[in-house]
Amino acid sequence: MKDPLKIPQLLLRCALGITFLTPVSDRLGILGPKGTGNVEWGNWQNFINYTSTLMPLFDRPVVNILGGIATVTELIIAILLIIGYRTRNASAAASLITLTFIVFMVLSVGIQKPINYGVFTATTAGFLLARVPNYEWSIDRLLAKKSG
């Protein structure tokens, strides 16, 4: 039977991976300085300043650590999704981390920011991708074929 999700799951994997890769690149200054193009932060300091507004209960050093953990996690998720390795787990992790972002954003700055940033869409996309039965054109698929 032909798999109707063959191409959509690939596109969703790549789109979600890029959705995580872009803000990581922004906060590391790879996309340029703040205010150019669609650059939100432009550097780590601006990112931590913004993150501090989302986590007012935490001291600055804690926010810096949590921001670092989030950044590394987002980078790993992005890579795993794009190459299609442990896709189900990466998709679930994508949903959980973005759901966490939604909670912090809604409680601190209101519902409009997560809507503007597409965080609800990313959360839902991750949950949907985690339910796809087969990941064509992925390392997962190659490993499944190899193991029989």
TrEMBL record:
Q: Where does the record place it? A: Membrane
TM annotation in the entry: 62-83, 90-109
Q: Which InterPro entries is this protein grouped with? A: DoxX
Check the record and name the Pfam families matching this protein: DoxX
Topology in the membrane? Multi-pass membrane protein
What keyword terms does UniProt attach to this protein?
Membrane, Transmembrane, Transmembrane helix
Q: What is this protein called in UniProt?
A: DoxX family membrane protein
Give the organism, scientific name: Mucilaginibacter aquariorum
